[in-house]
Amino acid sequence: MWMIGRGNEATPLNWVQTGTNHPETVVLIHAVGYDLTYWDRQIEALRDRYNVVAFDLPGHGMSPGEPQDWTFGKAAELVANLIERVDTKPIHLVGISFGGTIAQATALARPSLIRSLTLIATACTFSDEVRKGMRARAQAVRTGGMAAVLESSLERWFTPETRSRRPDIIDRVSKTILADDPGIHAAIWEIISNFDVQDRLAEIACPALVLVGERDPSTTPAMASVLTSGIRDSRMVVIPDASHMVILEAPVAVNQALNAFLAQVAIQ
């Protein structure tokens, strides 16, 4: 456990890194309800060429947190403080789902810290109907606990084929979600329901990769295309036959796209 930040404002944060003997750093931000261990296949794929840093968001994994800790401003500041601790140069920032919204917020708040941005299964804005569903999810976990949203989440996060073929993944994710704090989960869904940076995407000047599952019902390829339309130096890769948690369903395809992108934007 490390303290991230300064003085009385420092936050206890659990994070790991693969080593500082590489010239560039990749920082990974996980999805709501998950933790740093879900980046295991990406860490394995990147560690020979980069210092890979993964961390538990507050209230997830081994990082303590409270519902009132959650605003996008605080999240972006936390990520910026972590980046400044692990490298003196701009880093490659990667986020999935909620982690992707935090990555966007960080790139907008502290652009000098970011060399490239990879946004996986995420969006910059949402329809009113989707926002209403997010608030309903927050209310459901407040009244019924994490079990109230588990099955509907698994249906959105994974294709039927994965749910049938990979019970190990479903069991792992189910145990993680059921152990989450409902208050923190609800608070995060409420702030996501207000997220909208579409009009600011042109401010992102660094190269960006947008990855999306072909069958993702939560952050669809159409929503991903909004990101690539708004970010000047961006490209989109659609992962075939994958849903929302694409890093678990199709890690090989994700890693190939991520490695190819990072090779293009890395320091020569």
Could you explain the architecture of this structure?
By secondary structure, this protein is an alpha/beta fold. The chain is built from eleven helices and nine strands. The strands form two sheets. Strands 3-5-4-6-7-8-9 form a seven-stranded mixed sheet, sandwiched between helices. A two-stranded antiparallel sheet has the order 1-2. It is globular. The mean pLDDT is 95.
CATH architecture: 3-Layer(aba) Sandwich
Protein structure class: alpha/beta
| Tally of contiguous helical segments | 11
CATH homology-level superfamily: Alpha/Beta hydrolase fold, catalytic domain
Q: Biggest sheet, strands in spatial order? A: 3-5-4-6-7-8-9
Q: What is the first-to-last residue Cα distance?
A: 34 Å
Brief write-up:
The protein is α/β, with parallel strands linked by helices and 268 residues long.
